[in-house]
Amino acid sequence: MGLGLGAGASLLLSACGGVATTAAAGGSATTLRWGWDLPSSWDPVFSSKGWDVHLLSLVYSGLTQLDAEGNAVPALARSWHYAHDGRTLTFALRHGLRFSDGTDVDARAVKASIERGKNHPKSLIASQLTSIGRVEAPDRHTVVLELTETDYQLPTLLAGKTGMVVSPAAFRKDEAALATAPVGHGPFELLSYAQNSMASLRRDPGYWNADRITVDRFEAYPAPDETTALASLQSGRLNVAQIPFSQVSAARAAGLKVQLIPSMVVRVLDVNTSMKPFDDPDVAEALKYAVDRQALLDAEQFGHGTVNLQPFPPGYAGHDPGLQDAYRHDPERARRLLKRAGRGKGGVELTLTTQQAQGIPEQLQAQLEEVGFRTRIEVIPESRASELVYVQHSRALYIDQFAGRESAVQTLQVLFGEEGLMNPSRRTTPELDAATRAVRRTPVDSPRYGQVLREATGVAVRSMPNVFLYTVPRVLARHPGVSAIPRLPVVQRFEGVKAA
């Protein structure tokens, strides 16, 4: 049991391109052209954006990957097993694999890569590897993780960016170069990269699952602007792209195939309780009741998606239907809480930070002012958002969205942990720590796993200030000659994608 999805559920998909044909020796070469955010870094240890995982997965692999139901399945490792107490995890590696620099993917390489992610002073994934005490390589094809505590989440955790294996020869020779020139073992190898412009890749015939990669070239471009998405598809610059909800009908009318795909992305308001006015618990709680989530969903996404008051979407093992009524829109209750906080007269001054100048910020501003928040909108550029919100912790309320991670514990840590990347106040509670440890110590195939995880979800929703709003489906338009993009959880892969 992985993500706990039913067979009909689908999770996060990124956009992929269709196929262009060019002359090549022995036949035609096929090229996928994909519009997506190019990575903040091609080095998974220093990558600062959750979205980076999709591009990085083109050039790296982990010991595991996730199947369509969110279960950990073999990748660089062909098998693994835990000791009876859950404190030792042993992986058996595939034989004969190489990194794109020609060096061997063996146990010593895996050991060095994991240790770098865990111990590098600037690592952005170190906080997710704390349960690993020691890494051993007793022979060329065996990796043993000695754990500091029982942790049954590691096979799913290592399926994502946290577990991507980087060539030790590359990071020992020139670590800084990895930011723009990755060296891993993946379905593709990076040929050239123009930062913020374009990445060109070619299929790696030595990839462990190369038989399932049916295109020869891959080109990645920045995601098109909402106003140019359809034009990019119609002109052939891209073959598959994410489009806004407002353009679904136009895309279909233009002869494009449109996929509306449920995802693990949840719209959320990040609340910093170390800053005024949310250092007052009554004010933070009032915010949860002040928001009309359905009205925001209808306006921003034309009704696509589902109101969701928790970090896990419907269909996920951690989603608790009983929490959906926990903070229903209740303006009067919000006013009472502000009055109890001594803010009934004159209202509460508040700055709402966003990357959008119009739309949901204005609607949210009106909802907040209705209950007594005097709200000013601050628009910041995307390039500054992470620094201001998550590094400097200098913004009290930020409109954001969260993409679910491979591991449920990883999700809880990123959102709510003291070192969580998306926890702007860096505060948590002992109760939530205990609930998260209980999830970590429960085997994912245990009949109790879903219940333990839902209990942790409930503690998080009730004790932490985050205001979860609604799910955000992926809307993909693709050329009709391109086969459907696989429905996979969290990390997009391209096995079996074909063109007519």
TrEMBL record:
This protein's UniProt keywords: Signal
Molecular function in Gene Ontology: peptide transmembrane transporter activity
Residues annotated as domain Solute-binding protein family: 72-383
Residues making up the signal peptide according to the UniProt record: 1-25
InterPro entries in the record: Peptide/Ni-bd (IPR030678), SBP_5 (IPR039424), SBP_5_dom (IPR000914)
Originating species: Streptomyces daliensis
Gene3D superfamilies named among the record's database cross-references: Dipeptide-binding Protein, Domain 1, Dipeptide-binding Protein, Domain 3, Periplasmic binding protein-like II
This protein's name: ABC transporter substrate-binding protein
